[in-house]
């Protein structure tokens, strides 16, 4: 199973190797830039040009949470290995750590001088790696 995001504002889940569409997610109002499976495989997080990050629950076949504090397009998103936190990277030069249980931004990481283009939690740690259009990489302690 793979998930893709597209300029058509949709994400699609595909079965491999036959290529059948299993599920489609509709709700973003602009292109999708990133998608990442929850560690349990039961949810998906997506990022979009509409400035939001959305959490999708496969059993409900719906968006269950919209995170909307970025001021420009969101380029990437990532789940923490525990499944309780999501990280997002934005054109607004910030990255954020979201607590999905409280549905709030826990930290806003400022320091890049240009768009933050990618973000990833290092496996089984609280360290976040970001890359930016300012030609730098940063490691952040998300505790």
From TrEMBL:
Keyword terms: Repeat, WD repeat
Keyword Repeat: yes
InterPro entries: WD-F-box_domain-protein, WD40/YVTN_repeat-like_dom_sf, WD40_PAC1, WD40_repeat_CS, WD40_repeat_dom_sf, WD40_rpt
WD repeats: 25-66, 67-108, 109-143
One example of a Gene Ontology biological process annotation: axoneme assembly
SUPFAM superfamilies per the UniProt record, alphabetical: WD40 repeat-like
Entry annotated with the keyword Nucleotidyltransferase: no
Any one GO CC term of the record: axonemal central apparatus
Alphabetized Pfam families for the sequence: WD40 (PF00400)
Identification of the protein by name: SPG16 protein
Organism from which the protein derives: Eolophus roseicapilla (Galah cockatoo)
């Amino acid at each position: 199973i793979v998930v893709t995001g597209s300029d058509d504002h949709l994400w699609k889940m595909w079965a491999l190797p036959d290529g059948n569409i299993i599920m489609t997610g509709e709700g973003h109002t602009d292109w999708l830039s990133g998608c990442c499976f929850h560690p349990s495989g039961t949810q998906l997080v997506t990022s979009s040009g509409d400035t939001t990050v959305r959490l999708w629950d496969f059993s409900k076949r719906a968006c269950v949470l919209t995170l909307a504090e970025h001021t420009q397009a969101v380029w990437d998103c990532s789940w923490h290995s525990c499944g309780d936190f999501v990280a997002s990277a934005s054109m607004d030069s910030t990255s954020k750590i979201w607590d999905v249980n409280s549905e709030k931004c826990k930290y806003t990481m400022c320091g890049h001088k240009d768009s933050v283009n990618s973000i990833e939690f290092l496996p089984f740690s609280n360290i976040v790696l970001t890359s930016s259009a300012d030609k730098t990489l940063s490691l952040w302690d998300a505790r």
